Amino acid sequence: MSNLNLESSTFRISALIRIPLFILYIALTLPLPFLSEVTAAPVSPGVLWGAIGIGFIILYGALSERVIVDNEGIKVNYPGWIPPLFRKGWTLSWSDIKALKPRTTGQGGLVYYFLSDSGEGYLLPMRIAGFARLVKIVEVKTGIDTTDIRPLSQPWMYLALFVCTILLLFADILIIWTAKQSGF
Q1: Closest CA to 64 of 22, 6, 24, 122
Q2: 95-141 residue pLDDT tens
Q3: Which DSSP state fits 124?
Q4: How far apart, in Å, are the Cα atoms of 81 and each of 57, 99, 173?
């Protein structure tokens, strides 16, 4: 292991991932209260707005994962306002990391797990901003070759999701506007 002196660094989920997912959530849920109103659905628009708000808070919490690295090790955690029941954070010291093993996902992608002295696996966070820097820190601190490790998803995939989501959002706005104008 290198004696790289590392100040604590925090990595968060990339904005390229967070923003499209927030906009997709809005695009999928925004029409519901309006549709409830114009169709006289049994669920009131107020209840739907409340549920949408709660869902947004849950999504925000899920996308608030933080990866913290320092001279001692690596830690994955969530802000304190997220109940411990829903957080699955972990901490691993650099000396406890024995290997970084690839595993294939159900969709054919490749993820990596840190293997500890005890044989437990800890998922390497791959959707963070600064992933290449994190991987370099892992290599320096553990001595494990990380040359072949790449992010799970390429940026173009999230850009495509972003474009499609914006189109969906515009369609939602047009439909809501049309329904309001025609007095459905």
Answers
A1: 22
A2: 999 999 989 888 777 889 999 988 899 999 988 999 999 999 999 99
A3: P
A4: 11, 33, 33
